[in-house]
Amino acid sequence: MPSKTPLSDISSDLAHGVTSRRAFLRTATLSAAGAAALAACSKDAAAKPNTASPEMAGHPAGTAAPAAAPLSPRAAADAMDAMHEKGIKAFPAKTAGLGNQLMAPKMDKGCKVYDLTASEIQWEVSPGQMVAAMAYNGQVPGPQIRVREGDRVRVNLKNELKQSTAIHFHGLELPNDMDGVPFITQPPVKPGESFTYEFTVPEGNSGSHMYHSHHNAAAQVGLGLLGAFIVEPRSPRAIEKVDHDYVLILNDGMHGFTINGKGFPATQPFTAKLGEKVRIRYMNEGMMIHPMHLHGMHMTVIDKDGWAQPQPWKCDTLNIAPGERWDVIVNCNNPGTWAFHCHILGHAESDHGMFGMVTALVVSK
Amino acid sequence: MPSKTPLSDISSDLAHGVTSRRAFLRTATLSAAGAAALAACSKDAAAKPNTASPEMAGHPAGTAAPAAAPLSPRAAADAMDAMHEKGIKAFPAKTAGLGNQLMAPKMDKGCKVYDLTASEIQWEVSPGQMVAAMAYNGQVPGPQIRVREGDRVRVNLKNELKQSTAIHFHGLELPNDMDGVPFITQPPVKPGESFTYEFTVPEGNSGSHMYHSHHNAAAQVGLGLLGAFIVEPRSPRAIEKVDHDYVLILNDGMHGFTINGKGFPATQPFTAKLGEKVRIRYMNEGMMIHPMHLHGMHMTVIDKDGWAQPQPWKCDTLNIAPGERWDVIVNCNNPGTWAFHCHILGHAESDHGMFGMVTALVVSK
Amino acid sequence: MPSKTPLSDISSDLAHGVTSRRAFLRTATLSAAGAAALAACSKDAAAKPNTASPEMAGHPAGTAAPAAAPLSPRAAADAMDAMHEKGIKAFPAKTAGLGNQLMAPKMDKGCKVYDLTASEIQWEVSPGQMVAAMAYNGQVPGPQIRVREGDRVRVNLKNELKQSTAIHFHGLELPNDMDGVPFITQPPVKPGESFTYEFTVPEGNSGSHMYHSHHNAAAQVGLGLLGAFIVEPRSPRAIEKVDHDYVLILNDGMHGFTINGKGFPATQPFTAKLGEKVRIRYMNEGMMIHPMHLHGMHMTVIDKDGWAQPQPWKCDTLNIAPGERWDVIVNCNNPGTWAFHCHILGHAESDHGMFGMVTALVVSK
Predict the structure, then answer these.
(1) Is the pLDDT of residue A45 over 80?
(2) Quick one: which of C74, C63, C68 has its CA closest to C15?
(3) Which candidate, A336, A173, A360, A153, places its Cα nearest to that of A259?
(4) Could you give the CA distance from residue A340 to residue A346 in angstroms, rounded to a whole number?
């Protein structure tokens, strides 16, 4: 006997204005069975508390009509659209805290000194959604460090967490004892203790790198102990001369799907004027791939993990795997507000509207 | 104490001729515990109703012997093999409906006009497996649109769904108001309403692109609102002069694992004569990667997202991420029927035989 | 109302020295609800029995303090660190059995003959963790086959399994009847029966290839029926002249996350002397991507699926998709013990310490 999964199951939810998580799951899976189990164990439930209920996604509670009186199809569509509109109109939404802020070093006899304190904080991922986080200097991602090849750098790590930690400078080719792997290259930095990393950034090791915990890292990086470590080259290539240099750190851990520590509509838009050149540094600190899609203009890929590709190449969707960094150039020759999101659509949109890994590139005339 | 997971658990299932979903799950996980919960929440359960029971995968019910009398190991192997053989012998299986059909435009004063109606349909993914779908013109994928760079194109979208929708032309660099993102570039197209997209395909924007819903898209694209949008170049490169030009649209949503809207054995084989050249345009409209593996001959990668790679390069397994398009050339210099499938083996084969993302390239003498 | 997930939930576990799987899951998800269901259906539960309890991960039972008396934060951190240290100090841990051992062929009139017997065995993935496996010649991965382009090769497959099987030579461009796909290119090889593959390795088809089951393959490859098939070129390129040639076969099936059939700390380290050149041949036989990250030195990518890339390119994290092979060169110019792991951190580390896809490249002075 042929199996039929009537679309009316979905439509009836919509017709009734049911926009609950349960209805979403049914829509998403077309499976009546196992919804409860699915709810408990889907990535969605595990990783995206922000989609579990409308208010968490930045939509005030009560948007969805009570299911008492069935809505007409048009009214159901209007109800869904209203949620989508509200999310987009809220963008960019204000939240407390901003990560990835450029950090000015203290200078000590020619050495650039960065003090990083790891501590436990509450972090507002999207409006009203507070999550437990571990952060460097209270930021998720941690402060952006920018140095130049050949620079002498010192990073003073203070551990105010309740567990040990350590910093790995991902992409930097440092002496082994500065590599940040507890029990291999150093002892763990215990709660209340400090550790100093000091090194010269190798010549030729420029590009988009990262620093993050390398102890209990699946948890600590997922909770926010990560940041951009950018090494400027001594002699920039012509293609690197841009008007804006943006970092997009992707994460998909306990805070849901985030760009620079925030989920849509709290993500920050990227802006440029018509004719300007933008550099985007993608960094994936999560556990999943994120194929980032820019609307309206293509991207020219120049670097992988800080190393120049043999020749630049073009795309509109770039797959960023965990631990990878990819640098691209966008020639902003098309004016408008361009959607810019992960193309795993479940990381970017539900029937409640856009969330998570969505932002925009705004090209103004 | 060492933990042992005896293979006899698996073998006993096989020996008993038990080829149920439960047995498959046990085989797949080697875990006795939690099978029920797993069944409810695995990707398998959520995304592949077609593998949930033998009849859904195109195998008549009753293939599996009742467990009453244990089978000898050889008889159990024969029973499993019979299911595998039946699937392969059924290939290519007839099903109602064929997606990705080339659509001839109407001409209006030099403008190529395409009328697309989005509606809810039942779609036969594999023999006897009817699924709820959303489709353009009753096809999953929607009709294939093929134009040339510089062409004037009009797409009339009529929405006969019960929810709003909109079309994004993924990969085309259009004016912002033609970008198809509700509340950013246009209002949503409400049920019963229409919207007209009209634009000139930019010069230099040739290649393999897509059109799909950009509203409630995780659901709408998963249900079938997608299609190929191919832009022929004015001046094809020598390497583009091929005998066959095939499109493979990959999806992994509510219809299971599909190539051009069908799961094996209902997928269509691709054919060529010995010595011919074939172009394959991979397009991923799903939420997972699909590393496509061709047996017997390598593929030469020429384009990414419609843009020429700096130099062609060769492979036999090409990883296609969501939103990406990759174009490859195959020189059909090896005669035979060649398996051609996603190399995430769970997207292509179970102990019931091949299913989902499997097809063949048939090179005849 | 803003939702708060207090970090104290996590910390209290840590403070109490609770290092159970349940606590790990709570830490990992920050979700109190659904932990039981999650435990049953997470990838973790399905794929990594080795992380289900401390003793399975190579840590003696009883490492975690009983929860009766709450530990101080420092004592809790010490308890966690002790587990991490124990795993690392155990590396490389002895286990029974070693896969991927170079196999010397018998010669028969100029033909290189390899006898492979597929059978069911118990395999020690990590210390004390015995798993049900299917293996060629009792090895997981099977014996490493190394031939030269143009060689005549015969593989005698004997099936001592309880189910049928067949061998596909993944990456080799063979005559169709040697392609190893039951019911398409050959009958299945039944339990107790044998099949002989014989072919000439095509000129130009050198590089890193694989052999594996192509029957019930999601299960059989996941259980161990796979191996490296390496074809040496007649005329090696200068860049191929290396001091060490290492194979890393990645898998993520029923044996957990493994490199060459073993999970950390039972993985084998790779070694080189300062100034030496190492070639690494990555092969993914699993169902997930594995972005492999080498600390301390970059990798120069030379080949994809056995085909030279147009130009070598550099990275420190290389994404390997199922079915893919990537060859890289490492110039070992940085002395020390360098962590080398999959950068999906959940494949490499839990709060119990490192496990699974972790090894080291040890560069000695």
Answers:
(1) no
(2) C74
(3) A360
(4) 14
Instruction: Give the closest-approach CA distance of A311 to chain C in angstroms.
Output: 9
Distance CA C275, CA C334 (A): 8
What pTM, to 2 d.p., does this model score?
A: 0.86
* pLDDT, mean of residues B46-75: 47
Helix or strand holding residue B84 (H, E): helix B73-90
Three-state secondary structure call for residue B37? helix
Mean pLDDT along residues B50-55: 33
Q: Which residues, numbered 60 to 119 in chain B, qualify as contacts with chain A under a Cβ-Cβ cut-off of 8 Å?
A: none
Query: Which residues in chain A have their CB less than 8 angstroms from residue B190's CB?
Result: 74, 77-78, 81
Return the closest-CA partner of residue B225 out of B183, B162, B165, B154.
Answer: B165
pLDDT given for residue A72 in this prediction: 84
Task: Name the residue of chain C whose CA is nearest to A44's CA.
Answer: C29
A35 and chain C: CB distance < 8 Å anywhere? Answer: no
| E strand residue ranges, A305-348 | 307-315, 317-320, 325-331, 336-342
SS (HEC) of B310-330: EEEEEECEEEECCCCEEEEEE
The radius of gyration of chain A from alpha carbons, rounded to an integer in Å, stands at 22
Look at strands C277-284 and C325-331 and give their pairing. Answer: antiparallel
Helix (H), strand (E) at residue A125:
strand A111-126
Please say if the pLDDT value at position C363 is more than 80: yes
Q: B14 in contact with C at a CB cutoff of 8 Å?
A: yes
Can you give the pLDDT at residue A68?
A: 57
- Please give the average per-residue pLDDT across A256-284, as a whole number: 98
C322 touches chain A (CB under 8 A): no
Q: What ipTM was estimated for this complex? A: 0.84
Nearest CA in chain A to B251: A344
With CB atoms and an 8 Å threshold, state whether C81 touches A190: yes
The pLDDT of residue B30: 29
> What single-letter DSSP state applies at residue A89?
H
Cα C94 to the chain's mean position, in Å?
17
Q: In Å, how far is A46's CA from the nearest CA of chain B?
A: 12
Chain A residues in contact with B214 by the CB 8 A cut-off are 339
- Which residue bears the tokens 């099977």? C142
Partner residue facing C321 (CB), from B42, B88, B291 = B291
> pLDDT tens digits for C124-170?
999 999 999 999 999 999 999 999 999 999 999 999 999 999 999 99
Chain C CB contacts of B5 below 8 Å = 49, 130-132, 254
Contact (CB<8Å) B81/C188: yes
Q: Does C192 touch chain B (CB under 8 A)?
A: yes
- For residue C339, give the nearest of A132, A184, A289 by CB distance: A184
A222 contacts in chain C (CB < 8 Å): 28, 345
Which of B42, B257, B317 is best to mutate for the C interface (most C CBs within 10 A)? B317
Phi and psi, residue B53, nearest 5°: -150, 155
Question: Which residue stretches of chain A are H helix?
Answer: 8-15, 21-29, 35-41, 43-47, 73-90, 217-222
pLDDT at residue A47, rounded to an integer = 32
pLDDT band at residue B68 using 50, 70 and 90 as cut-offs: low
Residues of C whose CB is below 8 A from B76? 162-163
Report how far residue C248's alpha carbon sits from residue C141's, in angstroms, rounded to the nearest whole number. 10
Give the pair of three-digit tokens for residue A248. 């997009």
Q: Check: CB of residue B207 under 8 Å from CB of residue B147.
A: no
User: Which of A207, A174, A169, A175 is CA-nearest to residue A305?
Assistant: A207
Q: What is the dihedral of CA A129, A132, A138, A143, to 10 degrees?
A: -80
Question: Which residues from chain B sit within 8 angstroms of residue A339, using beta carbons?
Answer: 179, 181, 184, 214
